[in-house]
Amino acid sequence: MTTPLLVLDDFLPYRLSFTSNLVSDTIARAYESLFGLSIPEWRLVTVVAETGGITQAAIGVRTRMDKVTVSRAAIALVERGLMARTPNAEDRRSHLLRLTPEGESLYAAVAPKAIELERRIFSAFQPEELAQFAAMLRRIDERAVSAAG
């Protein structure tokens, strides 16, 4: 019995990772040059803007970033005055991260740029293709979670 040949470029988990890294690197260069933000920092700003206040642990769950990455990004954003830690009334052991007025201004400037960059990357695809792709990614997420559990 021969072992089937694994062709990395045809292996879907690799293709997902490769494409994700390629898109992330493109976005990272834009965010760094325009706003001085790393990808983890941008993700934190966005999640905090969407929620109005969230714990670091919840950010990790929501973004699939590890605790150290979330913590470093939060520290950097607090030090820059873009985010503040406030007491969490629901759990006194944790704090909520909230955007400061400066953070809200940054988000207001970055969000349209993010949407424009997304449009440029995906403009070659029809809306129906993008909807199918997004739905498929969500299904892959579900399958990956169930396969890991």
Automatic annotation (TrEMBL):
- Key words of the record: DNA-binding, Transcription, Transcription regulation
Which is one GO molecular function term here? DNA binding
Tell me which residues make up the HTH marR-type domain.
9-142
Q: Which Pfam families match?
A: MarR_2 (PF12802)
InterPro entries in the record, alphabetically? HTH_MarR-typ (IPR000835), Metal_resp_HTH_trans_reg (IPR052067), WH-like_DNA-bd_sf (IPR036388), WH_DNA-bd_sf (IPR036390)
Segments passing through the bilayer: none
At the top level of its lineage, which domain of life is listed? Bacteria
Query: Which named protein is this?
Result: DNA-binding MarR family transcriptional regulator
Supply the source organism for this entry: Sphingomonas abaci
